[in-house]
Each structure stands twice: as structure tokens, then as C-alpha cells.
Amino acid sequence: MSDQVDGRSGRKIVVRLYASIVVLAGVMGFVLGSIRPENLQPELFGFISLPPTPFGVAVYGFITVGVGLGLLLGLVMYVSERVDETTPN
């Protein structure tokens, strides 16, 4: 069977959705950093301190969401390539 339906690959759609979510997390981080709530101290992975500026919080959003979703997406892609598509009847 073909991996494409109507000229679109499922993998490409998922990767585009992943990229959109990561960009959205960065944009929302920038907005949150612009508001400057009290006690805002972003730390990557619990030990890398970032400045509580709009760009610092945007970087925090990009990296944390990118790594978290990226690991899950990579795991799903790894498993999907190794699972036999035929099921016993």
C-alpha cells in the first residue's frame, strides 16, 4: 500500500503540526515574558537559568515543548516503522 493519500504524506503533516506547536509555544512564551509576571524565573531542565525577558521565556517555550514533543514524536515514529502492518486473522 502507498503511504500517500491525495499526494500528502502523513509523516509530513505530523512534522508540520509539531513545528507549528513548537513555534506557538515560543510565541506564547514571548507574550508571557512581555507581561512580566512576578516570580518568573524560567529554568531549562531544572538547572539552566534563563533571563525573565520575553526572549528568555520564548527560548524556554521553544526548547521545552520542542524536546518534550520531539521525544514523543520520535518514539512514535520509531515504533511505527518496526510494527508489522499485517495482523493475524
UniProtKB/TrEMBL annotation:
Name of this protein: Cox cluster protein
Regions that span the bilayer: 17-35, 55-79
Keywords linked to the UniProt accession: Membrane, Transmembrane, Transmembrane helix
Species: Haloarcula mannanilytica
InterPro entries the UniProt entry points to: DUF7520
Superkingdom, natural source: Archaea
Short name of any one Pfam family annotated for the protein: DUF7520
